[in-house]
Amino acid sequence: MKKIVLFDLDGTLTDSSEGILNSIRYMLEKKGLAISDTETLRSFIGPPLADSLKALYDISEAEAQEAVESYREYYADQGIKQLTVYPGVEKLLTDLSEDYSLAIATSKPEFFAEQVIENTGLTKYFTGIFGADLAGDRSKKADVITYALEQLEGDTAVMVGDRKFDILGAKDNQLKSIGVLYGFGDRQELAEAGADLLVEKALEIPLALQRLF
């Protein structure tokens, strides 16, 4: 039985910042919310969108969910196409798929994650794509990881991601984790969250996995 490698999507396999930030700006403008500086907007990437909205704008759960629907309007039409695959990722997946069972575990809605993986031509590398549900009942990274592990066949797993949510979600599921430094998080964030190893480039991930498995 192969060992499982769970990958985050945004900031780990794809640089999706353009599409996500454009979708956020559209949402905020449509809902009449102040548009923050780019650094603050980038903080939306990773955690559940509704949680970020409630924290930054002091709005209700219902208002946050309405805003999320506005975000999805733009994202489904345009934002989903505004991304690139990070350098080295396809070679990484090609090599790893020979020895490991690869899967996606993302806080992005599963419906959109499946489209992204298909659009980028990466579907063949993954045994499963697991994400949040559109209703918001499964949005935390820890819950997504639990959901993925329940459906995958393997004796052990490692989580690979670029934000603290990936690392903390792995810990909640008693998994080891690798933090990538080329995504949307930084060294301090990932180290403080307790990542077992950090890598600068995608092609450093195989050696890191060998150290953890």
From TrEMBL:
Question: Where on the tree of life does the source sit, at the highest rank?
Answer: Bacteria
Which molecular function term from Gene Ontology is one that the record holds? protein tyrosine kinase activity
Q: Which UniProt keywords apply?
A: Hydrolase
Pfam families found in the cross-reference section:
HAD_2 (PF13419)
The record's Gene Ontology cellular component field reads:
cytosol
InterPro entries recorded for this chain? HAD-like_hydrolase_sf (IPR050155), HAD-like_sf (IPR036412), HAD-SF_hydro_IA (IPR006439), HAD_2 (IPR041492), HAD_sf (IPR023214), PGP-like_dom2 (IPR023198)
Q: Which NCBIfam families match?
A: HAD-SF-IA-v1
Protein name as it appears in the record:
HAD hydrolase, family IA
Question: Which species does the entry assign this protein to?
Answer: Enterococcus gilvus ATCC BAA-350
